[in-house]
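Sequence in, structure out.
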Amino acid sequence: MTMPARPFLQSDTHGIVLRPENRIYRTSGDLGWSSVFVSEQREQPFAAEVPAAGAHLIVLHLGGPVVVRGAVQGHDVRKAVRPGGLFLWPAGSGFKIELEAAVDTLHLYLHDDVVDEVASSLGCAGPGARLEPILGGSDPLIEQLALEVSAAARTGGMSASLHVDQLALSIAGRLVRKNGGDRQAETTRHGFGRHRLRVVTDYVEDALEMGLSLKDLSNLAAMSVTHFTRQFRAEMGMSPHQYVVRRRIERAKYLLGYTQEPIAQIAHGCGFSHQEHLSGMFRRHVGETPARYRRRKRGAATR
């Protein structure tokens, strides 16, 4: 099984954020991501019966406290939910929801295919992999991962697709394990051969300026996304996302040191969504800004 093939659009959601009284701050709807859809918004009070969808909905409260009533799969709750409060409305189940006051929220939709992929790798595919609802609980790890996805929608754009795919797998893994799916599957599939790994790394090198995804890379390796990610880390000592970022930074360093290209042009040519995105990642990995690095390299060359 692989990542979903087509982009995850706002029309694939329950439509809660489309209520006219809500104020949407940002969504990932136009970024081409296939594994998740994320939005941040100011939700106004409402009550609704929400039909089932083909994706799991995580709602993270960013403000509060606010009283929420909810019911799904025979479970129901009425509680004051504080910032960090979490709801999981599982795929395939309709639910009832009543929000008693306005509050800022983050909605993250996770494709059921992604959860199935992770559940299979953990040895709990089938009915045992079905997720139980979370009604106003908390989970610091899911909260952190969801906020990272939202941050990627704000700053990373399409170039963050690979990172977001890995965040989606991490969220799915956390949810499956919370549901009791902690049996690591024994795998009989072979790891990377030299040729298969070379095909992947050559493709990365030729496509650094593109919005690479885990689906693209795992297809090249003829592996599932989960198995590919595990085998790549075992072979390279880092995740696919970390490898791609490192190669993008190395290309940017070369172009900064040996060409006259404007920094904004270098950013786009290396797969960063804009100059500020390159600057932030460059500072994190190299310890200085691209402009300072260029000045230092040019100064060294004239001595």
